[in-house]
Amino acid sequence: MTLLQNPSTIAGALIGNWDNYCKNKITNVPVPLTDRLKALIDGYDFVNVEYLTAPLIVKDPAARAALIKVLGLIPDEAPPGVAPVSIQPEELEYVDQLRRVYNEASGSEIQTADEILRHPEHAQHFLDQRTRYFDAEHFQRFHRDSSPPEALAAFREDVYHGVIDVHRQRHPSSLERLDAVMRHASRLPAGLIGRVVLRARQTGDVPPPG
């Protein structure tokens, strides 16, 4: 607190104590105080540095992942994603896979997303799958920023093992396999990501509070 009340002293204290408090504690790889880094510290106006009280830290979205990891908080539910009207570059492979599934199911020769949207049987199904795609993308981004990385990886594993047996079963068509997997996925326990965080902590993947 004394340093924060006297910003002009922060640079000297930071440089003088770098090896003791910073070098091995910023990342998993040592960060030596190079001449370039020292020049950046010397040139920075530490008047811009502020401190946060505990109530402000708790309310800061940037601190959410650390609080979940350290205090054992259950992650919030991710808000639903919204599928843009136009096809986005990141979903092109997914859309093309759906196109092939629809062609196999109905013997069609659909070539584009616009043709799928005009198809009497597949249009609404296609819209639903795009919504699910962006739900999943939004879910991953939300929990990437608010949950420990190991919890999200464990969640993906749980979902995979929750549906893979259904995927491997015999199905009359790829479309029916897709629908069967999606139906089964919808039955996976709600709030699974929170339980994964708790399980990871119990098995030692996420440190307990304190």
Give a description of the structure.
This protein has 210 residues and is an all-alpha fold. The chain has twelve helices and no strands. The chain has helices at 2-5, 10-16, 18-21, 35-43, 54-59, 64-71, 92-106, 113-117, 123-146, 149-168, 174-186, 192-202. The chain is elongated, with a radius of gyration of 25 Å.
Q: Main β-sheet: number of strands, strand sense, barrel status?
A: none
Q: How many DSSP E strands?
A: 0
Shape: elongated
Mean of residue pLDDT?
81
| Unreliable runs | 193-210
Radius of gyration: 25 Å
* Beta-strand content bin: under 5%
Helix and strand succession? HHHHHHHHHHHH
Structural class: mainly alpha
Number of helices: 12
Range of helix content: 55-70%
Task: Give the terminus-to-terminus CA distance.
Answer: 23 Å
